[in-house]
Design goal:
The complex is a heterodimer. Chain A is α+β, with helices and mostly antiparallel strands. In chain A, about 55% of the residues lie in helices and about 10% in strands. In chain A, helix 1 packs parallel to helix 3 and helix 3 packs across helix 4. Chain A is flat, with a radius of gyration of 20 Å. Chain B has five domains: about 110 residues, Glutaredoxin (3-Layer(aba) Sandwich); about 210 residues, NADH-ubiquinone oxidoreductase 51kDa subunit (Rossmann fold, 3-Layer(aba) Sandwich), CATH 3.40.50.11540; about 80 residues, Ubiquitin-like (UB roll), CATH 3.10.20.600; about 90 residues, Up-down Bundle (de novo design (two linked rop proteins)), CATH 1.20.1440.230; about 70 residues, Alpha-Beta Plaits (2-Layer Sandwich), CATH 3.30.70. Helices cover about 40% and strands about 15% of the residues of chain B. Chain B is globular. The chains are: A alpha+beta, B alpha/beta.
Amino acid sequence: MDHKGEIEEKALLHDMASILTSFEKERSNLIPILQMIQEKYHYLSARALQIVAKHLEVSSCEVYGVATFYNQFRFYPPGKHQIRVCLGTACHVRRGDIILENFERKLEIKAGETTTNREFSIDRVACVGCCALAPVTTIDDTVHGHMAPSKVEGLILGFEIEKERRKRENQQGESKQ
Amino acid sequence: MNQNSRGKLNQVFASIKTEAERRFQEMKGHNTQNIFIGMATCGLASGAMEVKAAFEQALLERKLNAHIIPVGCLGHCYAEPLVIVDKPGFPPILYHDVTPGKARLLVKAFLEEGDPVFEHVLGALEESDTIPSVLEFPRFNQEKKVVMANSGLIDPEDIYQYIQKGGYSALVKALTLEPEKIIKEIQESGLRGRGGAGFLTGIKWQLVRNAKEKDRIIICNADEGDPGAYMDRALLESNPHLLIEGIAIAAYAVGAETAIIYVRAEYPLAGKRMKNAIGQSRQIGLLGKGILGTDFDLDVAVFQGSGAFVCGEETALIESIQGKRGMPQPRPPYPSQRGLWGKPTVVNNVKSMASVPPIVGNGAQWYRGIGTEKSSGTAIFSVVGNIIHAGLVEIPMGVTLRTLIFEICGGIPNQKKFKAVQIGGPSGGCLPESSLDIPIDFDSLTEAGAMMGSGGMVVMDEDACMVDVARYFLDFTQKESCGKCTFCRIGTKHLLDILERIARGEGRNGDIELLENLSLDINGGSLCGLGKTAPNPVLTTVKYFRDEYEAHVREKRCPAMMCRALTAYYIDLDTCSRGCDACVGSCPTESIFTTKNRKKAIDQSSCVKCGECMSACPPEYDAVRKVSPPELAPKIERPEDG
């Protein structure tokens, strides 16, 4: 393990310990613990699952079994911007699948994956409960209703422009110093 | 309960009510103006946050005084963001599709100058001479709001607003009665479980009441997983105290001291509001130890689910709370005998629980007076899809599907024809035009092959392909099958494979019969409701739309032109204009090229059939055509340099 990895490992152990102290060693706390870890790290790493298993005194395959059963848990870090394309019934009838396909083509990844630069990840979700606005996509915390393939391009472009702008500002800030 | 403690109970509650009334007068009195903004998830998605900011800003700029009260969902999702402006001298007025611009206009024109801006008014919420009432619309006057009566009218984060509207008085009444008397009342009301199957709620309670074990548990099932159904979420976000009151009455009736609300993972706001409401109730002594001075104790907790559709099934839900994989268990033992942590457990749906306070408050006979003989009360549907007035509708049982779709919800938009309505989510079925006159109740819907389910209703116009709809639902249930029973795990996979090959135009003779046989086997060989009902979408679409399946299998044609492998787009060279290239820019795959005579054509080899060119083509040319089977599209070679 390199030096950076060691530091990360230490930080993880420390953080996990503080999360776990607020839970009693009861099996029924397993799902709330996993939810708490995911809320903090946005995914469940293999190491984190091992620590939970040790804390609850159950085997790690038991923990892994529960975690993989539920759709909410992810095992890889998500992108900086999380794109969730709704494929509920109302969105399907209004061609949500075409919206998903456009995101996949534009970002060159499939649903459930993260782009190599960790900027975007795409997920398909079953229904966000805004059926009157179908087809719907949520990006981070914003709901985008009445989606169209041309809007996909615009949204991604918007994020890219924003990123460029920030990069420029940072460079300017650095050169001033 | 003796005379003495009954007197104390009423006294304690009277002081809470006085406080609620005092706060109400403070808000309402002294000529104050109130602005109610619908801020449930659907309102927020349509921009209610920006609207609220615009109101605040405009009020500040004009130095006007008005309370802004965030409220829940009225159910009229098609008109969100909705705002109610209550100005002294006027009835409360409902405004639809409010934008930040409209918000600023309302502050200036209405609040400052007294002009209610008629063109943006949906209607007045009370009868008046000046402004037409919303009750003139079928969407309002044919509804019967029992469970949703206060949704969208009160602040869900303020317990006193609920109490001022009469909230928690049913609980107070219940606490003065013998528990058996309450169970009898619920039985007499004929309330049936709103989660789908329609089991009598009162009988469930009686079973738990009769259990030998004294430690009993109440679970409220808010794991609303059907894609297309969101009434539970709306209720949790709009009126959480109604649910708490129902749970408290249920707990008192069966003798439970612990209650858990299982909220779906995808509903973070609902979970947050519920927790907040529980905290408030506890603070003023409506939950916790010795509720309202009686010896009744109750603790309510929220358990956030983790995203598994099968956890809507009661035994799977219980497994999930215990920290296990949410897999259904064989019944018996039923949860009422051995449920959570092995204790007798009542599992009730949100809508069943929320129906309890009105029943206890108004009496069983009142509730029986609503709806039909065998299905009393109201049903809440989320009517979505190709429908004009989409949203949540609460109607008395027994209204026909035709009335609901065409009168109350305004029918199909864009002059299209009605084709089918899908009821009950992945467990339900698709009903055609000829079934529209059946009344909506538990038994009639089941007889027609659909089911009440959780109340999701998706209306489809002539552009929907029934094979594709069946494929969609099977794709869903196949992914959500927990894997316990072989017929469900492997059977749904095979059903999906067959449907996919039919949709690709590779259907074989005998495939339709194979679908039917396999469906019956899956139904017979599965343990829980998910597997038993998973083939319903296939069975009903085959039953009512067999010719459509046959067109796919025999002619390799999709009559609705929905299945992408069986359709193609082409550009009609007679109407295409040389000077226009609107379609070229719209194409996400650069499949549109210029032909030798400078008109446009589509390269079929790279076209993904998204339909963008069709919407981009200006109406005066209207040159993009869609055909099925794809061979009907004329072949035009792309020139080497194009």
